[in-house]
Specification:
mainly beta; four-stranded antiparallel beta sheet; about 110 residues; single chain
Length: about 110
């Protein structure tokens, strides 16, 4: 069964950190391209990171570059999004995505507030 399960969201104060996880199962995970997106209330879904395939290049938009880092553990079939120096405008539901398979995680809420 193909499945993506996200975890790690929550409430954090401005300047804090969170690490999101996206655990994959049911398909060949190694070296497949993966992306993270987020969607704030009333806003369109925003792309925030990519790991490309086959060269595993890491790409970020300016809005998160230098603060967010994505990584993967092929042995565990897990993709991570480390988020540092969080700002209130980072508040959103965060989704992992495997574009080649058209797969999306269920989303995890991140709220940045004092």
């Amino acid at each position: 069964q193909v499945q993506l399960v996200e975890s790690g969201g929550g409430l954090v104060k401005p300047g804090g950190s969170l690490r999101l996880s996206c655990a994959a199962s049911g398909f060949t995970f190694n070296n497949v391209a993966v992306r993270w997106y987020r969607q704030a209330p009333g806003e369109e879904r925003e792309w925030i990171s990519s790991i490309t395939s086959p060269d595993s290049t890491f790409i970020y938009p300016d809005s998160v570059k230098g603060r967010f880092t994505t990584s993967r553990d092929n042995a565990k079939n897990v993709v991570y999004l480390q988020m540092n120096s969080l700002k209130p405008e980072d508040t959103a539901v965060y989704y992992c995505n495997f574009p080649r398979m058209g797969l999306w995680g269920q989303g995890t809420q991140v709220t940045v507030s004092s």
